[in-house]
Amino acid sequence: MAIMGAAKKLLVTGGCGFIGSNFIIYMLEKYPGISITNLDLLTYAGNKDNLKGVEDDPRYLFIQGDICDRGTVKKAMEGADAVVHFAAESHVDRSIHDSSDFIRTNIFGTHILLEEAKRRGNLRIHHVSTDEVFGSLGKDGLFDEKTPYDPRSPYSASKAASDHLVRSYFHTFGLPITISNCSNNYGPFQHPEKLIPLFITNLMEGKKVPVYGKGMNIRDWLYVVDHCEAIDLIMQKGKPGETYCVGGECEKTNIQITKDILSRFGKDESSIEFVSDRKGHDLRYAIDPGKIRRELGWRPKHTFRQGMDLTVSWYKENEKWWKKLKDRKFDEFERNKTGGK
Q1: Which of 3, 93, 311, 313 has its CA 20 to 30 A from that of 204?
Q2: How would CATH label the architecture of 9-185+222-246?
Q3: 282 is a catalytic site residue
């Protein structure tokens, strides 16, 4: 099922988003013989500037379009050997405010993609999902591939639905799919509404950092390039029909993350603004990546300290990139809410 031989063509959906753009850059750097078509609608989270460094590469083609449009998907998939499906609405607070776009893109859009792959003789698809579909953990335990689904927000429910839909096309039609459920990513090109880049950029602007509740919610953190490598391995070696949980084995409370970032800027806790907790805020996510480690030989290469060093440096060096996003006119809801999952 390897796809990375000479002159192979890959369709990436949502490639102008945070993880998608990092993945495209990673793949073009690693595989000289690959060509990539990037299909992205360019909603608020999609940013063509993420891929300025490759836009003149003859191996790269950008198509602005909606995965919910059958004609656009048909055109984008022409000649593709495989698909990596990132395109999704992904911000929890936005889904609580208005879930309609999440249902449309994450469920209906995935269905359009699956139907076109089936029509083309069962084209290989990798579906990128999230650990949020599993719900919330207590103080103990880890999510793995056998964890029952228990989504708690409209966002995670829409992603859970898309996971089930993708898996059904393997069982019903033999479509060669794989799914990965990943923990929280961080790194270059992440939208400044998310927790880590929001806090970094707020401090660079002389602002306080907003922390939900008491900051005791726990997440498992993974540097985005390590995630890209995991997807690459799954596409090469993953077994069709299988799910792989991808985690950093790096659990941190939100307040630990906050203090780490504050210390990097020489700030103390007076720079924290505690805000009302999010509705249905899951307490803890943590992934057991044992399966992908045993079967595919993957493990993260970056420690949290290394990943954060790279991330903070990137935002310091790319102020023009993130200021353009933060200077856009967001409504009160978007401006005042903290980021992250």
Answers
A1: 93
A2: 3-Layer(aba) Sandwich (3.40)
A3: no
